[in-house]
Design brief:
seven-stranded mixed sheet, globular, binds zinc ion
């Protein structure tokens, strides 16, 4: 109750900031937006196969791309960011994290609008057909009667651990089959599917570490291993080493950035909700901000908030999560 009142209050303050904002048409900006899963249609929502997520349907995704293009954005790939974006433009990067097979549902929209997107893959999930732990944990907690709010709290607690510790904890608490995917909704790509997917001209792949390791929980040696073995696995599976990384959960540090650069990565994404002013500095190129897009919410309003100079709820989130 209190939380929903606070959310309503923040929304109202965001709307005031939006009304006062004059930057909506400002050039020389790069907006990056983050998706995870896509659902085929609203009928597929709320079945509990995935943990709490952004509830984005293909129609929501299509509406988002259409709205951003109509607002004058050019959709760009990581290589275009790396090469330097021409002055005077407004640019958008579309990103999907983790490596869910359901991301193939994006292809129709990408082909239709000729829009590139970058898909960040945690490669051991692909190689081992292993469910993402937050989905598995959430399903197991729901079975024991936990509400979505309680599931979120438990998931946040576990995020301070290494991947090995999380897997061991889940298997011990719920049995070894807990990390088995349920269906095409929650499973990762298989290696042949990923190879095929990567052949699409609008698809770019990026590094999301081998085991979705939250890098700030790792030693420098573990960081280097997680990033390098993901680069190696992608080269084996799809034939190239990416130039771009998304830090799992957005958590990064100077040593995580260094480990990424040492593995040959030239562009990095966090989940700090802010846009970028162009030209990018060398430091900001490795720690680009990204916004989350949510299904079932006003598409145009969300897109306008991505372009705004100051959004109170985004500033609050940055204050609460400095590691993002
Ligand atoms: Zn992730």
């Amino acid at each position: 109750m209190l939380k929903s009142l606070m959310k309503q209050g923040l929304n109202a303050v965001d709307d005031l900031a939006l009304a006062a904002d004059r930057r909506a048409q400002a050039p020389d900006t790069l907006v990056n937006v983050l998706f995870h899963s896509l659902y085929e249609s609203p009928a597929h929502l709320g079945k509990g196969e995935l943990g709490p997520n952004q509830d984005v349907t293909v129609a929501d995704f299509r509406g988002f791309v259409e709205e951003m293009l109509e607002s004058g954005y050019t959709v760009v790939s990581p290589a275009q960011i790396d090469a330097g974006l021409p002055p005077g433009g407004r640019y958008l990067t579309i990103t999907f994290d983790d490596g869910y097979f359901n991301n193939t549902l994006a292809l129709g929209v990408l082909n239709e609008f000729r829009a590139p997107a970058t898909f960040f893959i945690s490669t051991d999930h692909v190689r081992q057909n292993k469910a993402f732990w937050w989905d598995a944990f959430s399903r197991a907690l729901a079975r024991s009667g936990a509400t979505p709010g309680e599931q979120k709290i438990e998931i946040e607690r576990v995020k301070t651990w290494t991947p090995e510790k999380i897997d061991a904890f889940l298997c011990e608490r719920f049995g070894p089959s807990v990390l088995k995917p349920h269906s095409d909704v929650d499973r990762p790509f298989t290696p042949p599917e990923l190879r095929q997917f990567a052949l699409n001209p609008w698809v770019h792949l990026g590094n999301h570490t081998r085991d979705h390791a939250i890098l700030t929980n790792c030693t420098p040696g573990q960081m280097a291993h997680q990033i390098e073995s993901c680069q190696h696995a992608l080269a084996e599976m799809v034939g190239y080493r990416p130039i771009v990384i998304a830090y799992p959960n957005g958590n990064h540090s100077p040593s995580a950035v260094r480990a990424a650069q040492d593995a040959g990565l030239r562009v990095g994404f966090t989940v700090a909700p802010h846009s970028e002013q162009l030209p990018l500095s060398d430091a900001s190129r490795m720690t680009l901000g990204r916004f989350l897009f949510f299904g079932g919410q006003d598409i145009r309003r969300q897109c306008r908030l991505f372009s705004a100079r100051f959004v109170p709820s985004h500033a609050l989130k940055r204050l609460m999560h400095p590691a993002y």
